[in-house]
Specification:
The protein has about 140 residues and is α+β, with helices and mostly antiparallel strands. The protein has four helices and five strands. The chain is globular and about 40 Å long.
């Protein structure tokens, strides 16, 4: 089964509603399509002891890894307060995405008009820090 970009956005929008953001009121949802064709979702979870919260992108990556996914093929991200607005990953999440990205990984963003922009993971963090993983 092929997952469309719009289906990924629908999943990201749905999980965004579960975000715990009582301090910023900025809710974010992320949906990942992995190398096995599975979809993994995550939302942001704030904490009164800032910056201990969790970003939506990191939560979705954690869900992917916990189910055995190895590579992000596509990730859709939506965020905003009362309305959806363009929401790019923070620096830490860009690094986390790069850990599970390959040259074909695409990050999808949607702005307040509903316009979708597509970005290669390498564009998000062109000089990503890399180590050779021990396995």
């Amino acid at each position: 089964m092929t997952v469309t970009d719009e289906e990924l956005f629908e999943r990201a929008l749905a999980v965004r509603e579960n975000a715990y953001a009582p301090y910023s009121n900025y809710r974010v949802g992320a949906a990942i399509l992995d190398d096995t064709g599975d979809v993994h979702i995550g939302c942001n979870v704030e904490n009164a002891a800032y910056p201990i919260g969790a970003c939506a992108e990191a939560s979705a990556i954690g869900a992917m890894v916990s189910k055995g996914g190895k590579t992000i093929k596509k990730m859709a991200i939506v965020g905003g307060g009362d309305k959806i607005e363009a929401c790019t990953p923070c620096g830490g999440c860009r690094q986390a995405i790069s850990e599970f990205a390959d040259e074909d990984t695409v990050i999808l963003l949607k702005d307040e008009t509903g316009a979708v922009s597509r970005h290669r993971a390498q564009e998000m963090l062109p000089l990503a820090f890399r180590l050779k993983p021990r396995r």
